[in-house]
Amino acid sequence: MLAHSQIEYMGYALEWCPFNSSRLAVSAAQHFGIVGNGAQLIMDMKGKSMMTTHKETLQDGCYDCTWSQVSENHIAYVGGDGSLTLLDIAAKKKLQTYKEHSAEVYSVDWSGANKRYIVTGAWDSVAKVWHPDRGSSFRTFDEHKNCIYCTVWSPHHAEIFASTSGDCTVKIWDMNDKKSVMTIPAHKYEVLSMDWSKYDANILATASVDKSIKIWDRRNIGKGEIANLSGHELAVRRVKFSPHKPMVLVSASYDMNIRVWDIKQDQKAQKSKCFEHHTEFVIGVDFNNYMENVVGTCSWDETVTYMYIHICLNISICFKNVVGTCSWDETVTYMYIHICLNISTCFKNVVGTCSWDETVTVLDISKPPPKMGAATGLMDK
What we know:
By secondary structure, this protein is mostly beta strands. The protein is about 0% helix and about 50% strand. It is built from no helices and 34 strands. The chain has strands spanning about 5, 10-15, 25-30, 40-45, 50-60, 60-65, 75-80, 85-90, 95-100, 105-110, 120, 125-130, 140, 150-155, 160-165, 170-175, 180-185, 190-195, 205-210, 210-215, 225-230, 235-240, 250-255, 260, 270-275, 280-285, 295-300, 305-310, 310-315, 320-325, 330-335, 340-345, 350-355, 360-365. A 4-stranded antiparallel β-sheet has the order 1-28-27-26, with no helix packed on it. A hairpin with a 3-residue loop joins β7 and β8 (about 85-90). It is globular. The two termini are about 50 Å apart.
């Protein structure tokens, strides 16, 4: 873990700034988001610490946020009172507040492809599209039969977004159509989150109350998911694809853990790396756009963290079995990963070994000896 910061609210969502690699927006609420105030925080990394540089207090919970794709100072956030607010953090003033949803707004996303459209999804089962220069929404999409948990723009197509719902489906929408262009019966239980691959316009991931993550190719939905990732022990609240590697994704769960997946290596094995630094539900997670393998997380344990999820390793081309590693713990190491071993041709079950720890040993492998010391001078030749 690189940095850890205690906040006075339970974290619900976070997003790295697309213009500043050390800046985070964090949405949070008091008392599990049921009663009490909410807060929209802007946090900056200062070395190994995180400092809150701006705070907006809401009368209700704050559940999600998204950065403008055209201005580093503009951000949008949504609340439990059905509101969408646009904020200028440099001027420290609200640019617009909209209140068209009739229930809690749980999701907001600013289009990276179009750069002007904003989409929201709420517990009134409605998704709405907004433009910062208009005083009201200009598109409403209302096919879902239950609350909407997540709305995300396609990074490849300026007018396409997806929504997930408690009706167990994912719907894909085109701004030019009144009806959804595709409905995916993704899970048997509520679908809490989804994300688009940053490298392939047809690949998307979904996360559900059923504890699973599914990878879909929307050209072949009828054949089912192309991968089913299991490992979390409770509902998966958030899933995000890496902007740096095509098939790497990170997930956050109510089991208090973060998992990082690389599904291209072996889909059947479903290998993942688990991080257990939180002590309550983990609700928010996001990859840093500039620093590969750095993710931010927020949790109901009232902490925000950013951490490195992988270390660099390189094998020397000059020295056999020598590897070098570097880590964000500010250390660099080189080490010998193998020792020389040879079997005696004269004595059965006797082997000799030599190592870069400057020792040579002779072992009888037919039976385990109490302990053999290092021999010297046997390989002076």
